[in-house]
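BUG: 3D viewer hangs when loading the predicted structure for this chain

Environment: internal workstation, default settings.
Expected: structure renders.
Actual: progress bar stalls at 90%.

Input used:
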Amino acid sequence: MTHKIWTQWEDLDVPAGIEALNPKNFPLETSDLSQISFYMVPYMSGRKGLEYTTAMSNLKTLQVPNAGFDDALEFLKPGVTLCNARGVHDASTAELAVALAISSRRGFYDFAQAQAAGKWANKRYPAFNDSKIGIIGAGSIAKTLASYLAPYDVEVTFFSRSGSDGSMKMSELDSQLPHLDIVFLVLPLNDESKALFDAARLAKMKDGAVLVNVGRGPIVDTDALIAELNSGRLFAGLDVTNPEPLPEGHPLWSAKNLVLSPHVGGNSTAFDSRAKKLATAQLERLVRGEELLNIVAKG
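Structure tokens produced before the viewer hung:
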């Protein structure tokens, strides 16, 4: 049996028994998509990339290129297995999270404004070292982030729903927030995490603390965060926002104490090699009849 698979790469290493389709030999816009049985959504294609699945009547595997998969669930048809890209973005997302935290802690938002104005604005900022850090989430990105923090003189506490592997339970989070200097959000979006950091929880954070969100925008109440930022009490480093993309004129653009990046946590040169490795591993399992990696849902 020959599996017809579609990925964004022309040079993907595929095993025997696979017919590799790609944008050059099989453009999604003009081809008969009913032939595709394995579809890896093009990276950064958004909803448009997922909408092509509506014409894939013989699709068996939907492989998303992100760790997050909430946006793909509505396209999951009966008989289709959904896999995420757990592990692919760990390195890039973790390094950006550290950069956002250090930038926020050390005043890069002020430096950028002073540079644009041609001013030498020297003052003291809090150190990143000696910080008490909370990592909310216990997935592979969270673990990679912790390893990246290891060289610093910081105290790291994990929070997870189960409280396993040495983490604290989420039920203990509120009691710990007043003591944390930096809080990293690296958890997926679901019913439990939506608006997890609302006005009440943000109010529990320590004066001068930094909130870094590299998970999903709706985990944080945007209006409540803007109020805290503009009051000068909290600082934030955001790679994800709600709404997203952030529209022109949105008050987050002008919020104080904010370092903002346009959802580029996983979008670095590290993506292709890691994503290709995952795709090849999936295809090898497919032809051997083995269970695929990173199954997160079945239609």
